[in-house]
Specification:
Order of helices and strands: HH
Distance between the termini: 10 Å
Radius of gyration: 14 Å
Shape: flat
Number of helices: 2
Length: about 60
């Protein structure tokens, strides 16, 4: 699986850039669904996570 464990410092998100990039992508996906009413983000969360997890990542050439 080529999993690499990284220990990062608390409140220093720059150290964990891969995780931060994934969170930014999910937030962008949610924002595109909730343009008019930001209180409905939880309705779309599960579908957006599924879409992200099943999409082919260009850098990995596989799904995350």
């Amino acid at each position: 699986l080529r999993v690499e464990k990284r220990i990062t410092t608390t409140y220093h998100h720059q150290c964990n850039c891969l995780c931060e990039r994934q969170m930014r992508t999910v937030k962008t996906m949610l924002a595109s669904h909730c343009e008019k009413d930001h209180r409905t983000w939880d309705i779309f969360l599960q579908a957006d996570i599924f879409a992200y997890n099943t999409s082919l990542q260009a850098s990995l050439r596989m799904t995350p």
